């Protein structure tokens, strides 16, 4: 973003405009949170917290400064202590930045490297990197230490690369009672995490073709599908952003990704919203439509058909 490139000393700046008058795109998406008035997005390429008005989509950026290692695009947490918690150094550190100034407040070294960080209601949650099967994936900050919170366990796989891929766990936007979680690779299923750490599993639509079942495949990702890219839970239903579409995995040349959003509601047909280009994240949802961050970094409102 222009302010960071120009080296401005102020911590909060308006996002620069492109030639057509639209807001400058988000660079490297690193997670979002939603308040009653704004959407907050981590742009790890700056780094900054981009603040987007939920009504007008006007945006400004709070620059994050003074971290010793690059921040990771693995989410962020706001536990209500006046700071943003962000992972850095490929999950080895947690940085706390002032929500008022963007200045670094504290650096913590993690005993268990993190692959993700999120707000679990009023506390900080970490998704730990796991290689061995049967280990607890989700940790929550309790009395200054991260301790196991949910029964979700790491899954087995024949070798280390496949284990890392199979145990990538992501979180989306939730309600006062539940937060959606999903494994990036595997069956099309979302886990709704409750406030006490319990989960319930629900199947979700997929646009991915089932994988080939050949023992000759040299790459572990060749026998997996990647059905979900993002999830946004509301009281009236669960929105899913697709990930893989067709038979090519997301990293394969020519792959099609995230061209549909789907609303799941109990006792009602699914509502499918086609997207005109690849989506990256669902930033907001209401009965009128969606606010989508597209893969090109542009934030747009999408009307429901």
Report the end-to-end length measured between terminal Cα atoms. 33 Å
Write down the overall mean pLDDT. 90
Walk across the major sheet and give the strand order: 1-5-4-3-2
Q: Count of helical segments?
A: 2
Largest sheet: 5 strands, antiparallel
Class computed from helices, strands and strand pairing: mainly beta
CATH topology of the domain at 68-154: Thrombin, subunit H
For the CA atoms, what is the radius of gyration?
19 Å
CATH architecture grouping of the domain at 68-154:
Beta Barrel
Form type: globular
Query: Which range best describes the helical content: under 10%, 10-25%, 25-40%, 40-55%, 55-70% or over 70%?
Result: under 10%
Strand content: over 45%
Top-tier CATH class of the domain at 68-154: Mainly Beta
Number of strands: 27
Low-pLDDT sequence parts: 1-13, 17-21
SSE topology string: HEEEEEEEEEEEEEHEEEEEEEEEEEEEE
Summarize the entry for a quick read.
The protein is mainly beta and 305 residues long. The chain is built from two helices and 27 strands. The N terminus is likely disordered.
Folded structure, characterized:
The radius of gyration is 19 Å and the shape is globular. It has a domain at 68-154: Thrombin, subunit H (Beta Barrel). It is mostly beta strands. The chain has two helices and 27 strands. The model is unreliable at 1-13 and 17-21 (pLDDT under 50). The longest helix is centred in the middle third of the chain and has 7 residues, at 160-166. The chain starts with a helix and ends with a strand. The strands form seven sheets. The protein has a five-stranded antiparallel sheet with strand order 1-5-4-3-2, with no helix packed on it. A four-stranded antiparallel sheet has the order 6-7-8-9, with no helix packed on it. It has a four-stranded antiparallel sheet with strand order 10-11-12-13, with no helix packed on it.
């Amino acid at each position: 973003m222009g302010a960071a490139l120009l080296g401005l000393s102020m911590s909060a700046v308006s996002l620069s405009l492109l030639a057509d008058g639209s807001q400058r795109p988000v660079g490297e998406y690193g997670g979002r949170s939603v308040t009653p008035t704004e959407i907050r997005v981590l742009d790890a390429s700056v780094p900054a917290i981009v603040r987007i008005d939920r009504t007008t989509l006007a945006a400004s950026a709070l620059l994050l400064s003074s971290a010793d290692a690059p921040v990771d695009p693995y989410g962020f947490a706001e536990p209500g202590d006046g700071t943003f918690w962000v992972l850095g150094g490929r999950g080895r550190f947690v940085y706390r930045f002032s929500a008022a100034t963007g200045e670094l407040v504290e650096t913590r070294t993690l005993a268990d490297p993190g692959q993700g960080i999120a707000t679990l209601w009023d506390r900080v949650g970490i998704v730990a990197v796991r290689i061995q099967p049967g280990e607890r994936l989700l940790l929550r900050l309790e009395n200054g230490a991260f301790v196991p919170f949910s029964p979700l366990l790491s899954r087995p796989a024949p070798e280390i690369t496949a284990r890392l891929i199979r145990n990538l766990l992501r979180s989306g936007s939730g309600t006062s009672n539940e937060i959606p979680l999903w494994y990036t690779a595997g069956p099309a299923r979302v886990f709704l995490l409750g406030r006490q750490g319990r989960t319930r599993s629900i199947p979700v639509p997929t646009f991915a073709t089932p994988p080939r079942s050949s023992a000759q495949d040299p790459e572990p990702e060749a026998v997996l599908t990647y059905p979900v890219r993002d999830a946004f839970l509301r009281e009236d239903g669960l929105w899913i952003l697709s990930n893989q579409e067709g038979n090519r995995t997301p990293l394969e040349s020519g792959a099609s990704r995230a061209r549909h959003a789907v609303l799941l509601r109990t006792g009602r047909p699914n509502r499918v919203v086609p997207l005109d280009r690849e989506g990256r994240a669902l930033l907001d949802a209401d009965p009128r439509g969606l606010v989508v961050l597209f893969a090109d970094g542009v934030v747009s409102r999408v009307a429901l058909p």
